[in-house]
Amino acid sequence: MVDLSDRKPSKGKLNSQWIDIRKALIEDLDEVQKLYVEAAKWIRSSQGIIQWNEDTFTMNYLEQFIREKDVFVAYLDGELVGCFSVQWKYEEIWGELFHDNAGYIHRLVVLRKYKGQGIGSHFLTWAEDYIKSEGKKWLRLDCMADNPALNQYYLSQGLVFQGRYDGRGWSANLYEREIID
Q1: Which pLDDT score, from 0 to 100, does residue 172 have?
Q2: How buried is residue 120: exposed, middle or buried, by Cβ count under 10 Å (0-12/13-18/19+)?
Q3: Which of 37, 83, 102, 181 has its CA 20 to 30 A from that of 58?
Q4: What is the pTM of this model?
Q5: What is the CA radius of gyration of the chain?
Q6: 45 and 115 in contact (C-beta within 8 Å)?
Q7: Phi and psi at residue 113, in whole multiples of 5°?
């Protein structure tokens, strides 16, 4: 785990508004839970995909997630608009393709009312800068193989398909983007 105690929150401009990205705190739990539960329900109801089960996002699970991972929250005008984590190991999914010169984005979510406003792209750019600051050269992530819209989105963001992981009853496509100096 990377020590973030001295890292200041980041501010970036998005469509003439300021978005603040910072390390998640236990105080963010209620809002983070609402965000993930809403996303899980939306994916299931609108896409017919069970990518995330809303029952997964218990307070205990999310508290452990925040305490043990590099989890970041993003606020726009005081409203939580998204969340994601950066992990440094994710061997099960990546198998033989795993290497330690990458940061692995996990559980990236954007509040539905901000869909299409560039927040996800902003998160990826911010995460890339963060990963680079830790001396790594690759941004990697996985997403459900049976979610064509999400797969197309990551391709449109310059990520390159690297393979597929088949788990028990689900599959994930693996993507990466080299971090250019």
Answers
A1: 93
A2: buried
A3: 102
A4: 0.85
A5: 16
A6: no
A7: -65, -10
